[in-house]
Specification:
Layout: E1 6-7, H1 8-14, H2 20-28, E2 32-34, E3 37-38, E4 44-45, E5 52-54, E6 57-58, E7 67-72, E8 101-102, E9 111-117, H3 120-127, E10 135-142, H4 147-155, E11 158-159, E12 162-163, E13 168-175, E14 178-185, H5 192-199, E15 203-212, E16 215-216, E17 225-227, H6 230-239, H7 242-245
Helix pairs in contact: 1-2
Length: about 250
């Protein structure tokens, strides 16, 4: 008989509590209990037999999978709760009928397209470094940028002791004292664009994600959300190769 148990963080992800990485953090911080006992990293559970709670609230597996896009404004952090009482993206989807969590993150001063879901497999595929799902950004920098700097960003730079993956970088608009770039990344390192610009001596005045894979933010207003269409979900799954090897 096959083992019916699965890793606790995978179960929490599948239930729409948080991504696997965030679920591991919740376990490490003591927020998760299994059958009334504090859980630890490495625990496995039987979804049909074991009772799991997070901060005293019983976890129930969602049967309906949900996929949203949110236009995250500046000033919000990409998390569902914050002990420092900072503004969270959870506030912006409070009126949605299901519990969802963000896929990846945009830092506090960045804005734009943020995907949210309760589908753990989908979230993991979107974030997996081997999937190379592209993310497109509109970046305003000051004061100017040289061709050599553009080529460095595009070909790769050393961050954390290793090279970044090649990126697509092009100038959209030149104005006095500032340049607007379009940057397409194929990996998702922490604050990657800001850190690349900092290494080149460039100031980032504005950073906005305008697309994830083939799905574009479009005219969605800041602070608003909408459900992805089935076609958009399918395109994202294909971009992450979920149809083939997920």
């Amino acid at each position: 008989m096959a083992d019916a148990k699965i890793r606790l963080q995978k179960y929490l992800s599948e239930c729409g509590v948080a991504s696997r990485r965030k679920s591991e953090q919740l376990i490490e911080q003591g927020h998760v209990k299994v059958n009334g006992t504090r859980a630890k990293i490495g625990d496995k559970i039987d979804p049909k037999r074991d009772s799991v709670s997070v901060n005293g609230h019983k976890v129930i597996r969602e049967k309906t999978l949900c996929y949203l896009m949110l236009h995250k404004p500046r000033g919000f952090i990409t998390t569902m709760s914050d002990e420092m009482e900072r503004k969270c993206v959870a506030e912006l989807v409070r009126d949605y009928k299901k519990r969802v969590y963000p896929i990846g993150r945009l830092d506090r001063e960045s804005e734009g397209l943020l995907l949210m879901t309760n589908d753990g497999d989908f979230a993991n595929a979107m974030m997996h470094p081997k999937r190379h799902v592209s993310k497109t950004y509109r970046v305003t920098i000051r004061p100017d940028i040289a061709q050599e700097q553009l080529e460095q960003m595009a070909s790769g730079m050393f961050l954390d002791g290793r090279m970044t993956s090649p990126a697509d970088v092009r100038v959209i608009r030149r104005e006095e004292g500032r340049i607007v770039l379009e940057i397409v990344l194929y990996e998702g390192r922490n604050r990657q664009i800001r850190r690349m610009c900092e290494a080149l001596g460039l100031e980032v005045a504005r950073l906005k994600r305008i697309a994830v894979g083939p799905v574009k933010l479009g005219m969605l207003a800041p602070g608003k959300w909408r459900e992805l269409t089935p076609d958009e979900v399918h395109k994202l799954m294909r971009a992450a190769q979920m149809d083939f090897d997920a």
